[in-house]
Amino acid sequence: MKKFLFLLILLALAGGTVYYFHPGLLTTGPPTREEWEKIKSEAQVAVSAIIAGDKAAAPTAAPEDKPAHAVSPLTFPDNKEARAQAKAENKPALILWHGSDWLKNTEELAAEWNKLATMKLPVVLGQIDERCGAVRELSEREKLLPTGAFMNLPVAVLLAPDDTLLAVYHGKAVWTAAAMEAAVQRTLDQMPQYMELVEKARNTPGVEGARAAGEALAMMPYADAMRNHPLKKILNDKDPEHKTMYRYLYGMDHMGMYDEINAVLNGGKGADARFRGKDRKFAEAQAFVQKVLASHPMNIDLQQQWNSGLAYAYREQYTSTKDAAAKQKMLESYRRVVEIDPASEYGKGAARWVRYWDDSVYYEFEEPYYDSGEMTVGFEKEWRVNVSKSMKGPGVYTFSLVPIPSKNGRLSSRAFSLYANGKHVCDAEEPADKDTKTATFRVPRSLKDRVEVRFRVQCHDGWFGCAGEMKMQKK
């Protein structure tokens, strides 16, 4: 135990991050400087105490406030019992996955689900009450439902009597009985058509069975379809040559898509790959993705996923060949992902790639710091640093960049100029092609309002990203 605690504390001191699956222990953001100093101080005391064998000196955690109830306020049967009952009665099972001794507003959730029990839905209600410490390993949590584990609770899962996944419900629907009843009823209305396709998928050999599996998956929201492992297996087993194209849509996840694209690019997978670098088959990979995009009507998630794949194929071409046309096609693909749904994770990620690769986009900073979100690898971006507060009238100024950690120093910068309110004032005395972290300006007059230092940067400090301090000082 001492050794385990010692390793955890050392990890904290080294700036590492410890993740635990339990939603109640997820932090809301990085600690402030004051909080971090306190953490380090307490950790150092703990390390010293453990090494010295002084258990009394080690800090102890303050007791946490617990809800008044220690067990689930719901009387539904446990997950396994509910599913067995549903099978015996030939009814769907609706399983609520929650945590009664740590989840906020549990009483509110329980009150709504107790109402739901009186609404005469033709389902068997069950629950997984994941109390603190009840399920220690992720592998065990994955076995609780055929859908696998969920990161955010509460969530509800509707299963057919034979355990076939029908739907997953989360968000606001789970918290109100009326919304939950309406959502379940919509699923039940589609259940006959869906189960007919499922049975056809199971009992029909070859491509036709795969097509039925694909059609069933297409009836589900994308996130639910990707959790429907039995149907995905049927799809992959019965259509190994992708003749229905459904396998590209539902038979693989995001990373599986990249595996397929890379197989075309490289002329094979893993050790079977025949092509490298600029000799890869870029046109063939791009045509492959375009074929998938045109093969079947796609929901928003799939449109964004495969357009991201198309952007990747063009990006690989650009980074290997510096083909300007490939770069523009890459940017068009990323912009298409953003246009489809800018608020989704795909949309937000694609927007960052547009910001990263687009030459017309510059990065703006305020003295005195720049951070790791603004790194570029293999090419330059324009940075604009607001130095208005440092201007003290005409004279000679030095502008300095101090990377953190300074020993790495993988920051290249050149072509420094000074602007006031968007108008050019002067250039640095250093030549525009000189890589330097300090630039000298001779400022001829007092400058008011917004004053900026503009320059070109390539910044890539490995694990530390790209971070440091900026200083504008008058000599």
Report on this model:
With 475 residues, the protein is of the alpha+beta class. It has four domains: 2-57, no CATH class; 79-199, Glutaredoxin (3-Layer(aba) Sandwich), CATH 3.40.30; 252-357; 363-474, Jelly Rolls (Sandwich). The protein has helices at 2-13, 33-52, 79-89, 106-116, 138-142, 172-175, 177-203, 206-218, 222-227, 229-238, 246-250, 254-266, 282-295, 300-321, 324-340, 345-357, and strands spanning 93-98, 124-129, 155-159, 165-169, 363-366, 369-370, 381-386, 395-403, 411-420, 423-427, 438-443, 451-459, 468-474. Helix 4 (106-116) packs across helix 7 and helix 15 packs antiparallel against helix 16 (345-357). It is globular and about 90 Å long. Mean pLDDT is 84; it is low at 1-31, 45-59 and 66-70.
Quickly count the helices. Answer: 16
Beta-strand percent range = 15-25%
Element pattern in H and E: HHHEHEHEEHHHHHHHHHHHEEEEEEEEE
CATH level 4 superfamily of the largest domain: Glutaredoxin
How many beta-strand runs? 13
From the 3D structure, determine the CATH topology of the largest domain.
Answer: Glutaredoxin
Helix content: 40-55%
For the largest beta-sheet, the strand count, sense and barrel status come to: 5 strands, mixed
Q: What is the topology, as strand order, of the major beta sheet? A: 5-7-12-9-10
Reported CATH architecture of the largest domain? 3-Layer(aba) Sandwich
- Give the CA-based shape: globular
Per CATH, the class of the largest domain reads: Alpha Beta
Count of domains: 4
- What is the overall pLDDT average? 84
Q: Ranges with pLDDT <50 over ≥5 residues? A: 1-31, 45-59, 66-70
Oligomer: single chain
Question: Which structural class is indicated by helix and strand composition?
Answer: alpha+beta
Radius of gyration: 29 Å
Distance between the termini: 57 Å
